[in-house]
Amino acid sequence: MAGHDFPEPADRRPLAESAAALPEQAPARHPCDPAFRHGVVVGFDGSVSSERALAYAVGMARRTASALIIVHVANRLPATVWAGCEPPVFVDVPDHRTEVLGLELACADHLAEISWVLVERGGDICHELEEVGREYEADAIVVGGTHGLAGRIFGSVAGRLARRAQRPVVVIP
Fold first, then answer.
1. 167: Cβ–Cβ under 8 A, 6 or more apart, which residues?
2. DSSP assignment of 86-138
3. Tens-place pLDDT, residues 62-105
4. Residue of 103, 172, 166 whose CA lies nearest to 140
5. How many CA atoms lie within 13 A of 162 on its CB side?
6. Which DSSP letter does residue 17 get?
7. CA–CA dist 127, 125 (Å, integer)
8. For every residue of 22-72, which 3-state class applies, written as one string?
């Protein structure tokens, strides 16, 4: 560039030697398959509400020619329920539901035309859906609406996700 002089280093080593002298750096890798980047994330637990959300997400993925990332969040219960201990320790409860959901989804005709993957996570549903959305750089997150007393008392997953998400959230009633 005009007006800028960059002095030559005094000890000019070949590129291979200077690279060997640098500390080993891990290559920058994306944690997901590139084919699923910018896809549609959908929360799915097999309920009627999540089936509606899945149907909408399938249509959305078809219209945008993108992939579908189906997320099932496994249960985590506080250890205080099991052991009576004081600190809030969480225990992963074996959840074989993900395997059953995976088999059901593999047999579903409406998923045959698009690329999809089933991701299992454990923890808070809102946090995990947003985290998967971030990892896959999702264009949107689709969830089913919560109906019932529990959703009114504790707040629905859809409502909490819509308030904190960094990407569009579509709530299907």
1. 133, 138, 139, 140, 141
2. SS--EEEPP-THHHHHHHHHHT-GGGTTS-EEEEEEES-HHHHHHHHHHHTT-
3. 999 999 999 999 865 554 444 555 545 444 455 567 777 777 88
4. 166
5. 14
6. H
7. 6
8. CCCCCCCCCCCCHHHCCCEEEECCCCHHHHHHHHHHHHHHHHHCCCEEEEE
Q: Note if the pTM is more than 0.90.
A: no
- φ, ψ for residue 26 (rounded to 5)? -70, 140
Strands 76-78, 90-92: pairing is antiparallel
Q: Which two tokens stand for residue 33?
A: 């398959």
Gyration radius of the chain over CA positions = 23
Fill in the DSSP letter of residue 3.
T
**Tokens representing residue 28 in the block:** 């920058």
Residue with tokens 């506080």: 78
CB 142 within 8 A of CB 49: no
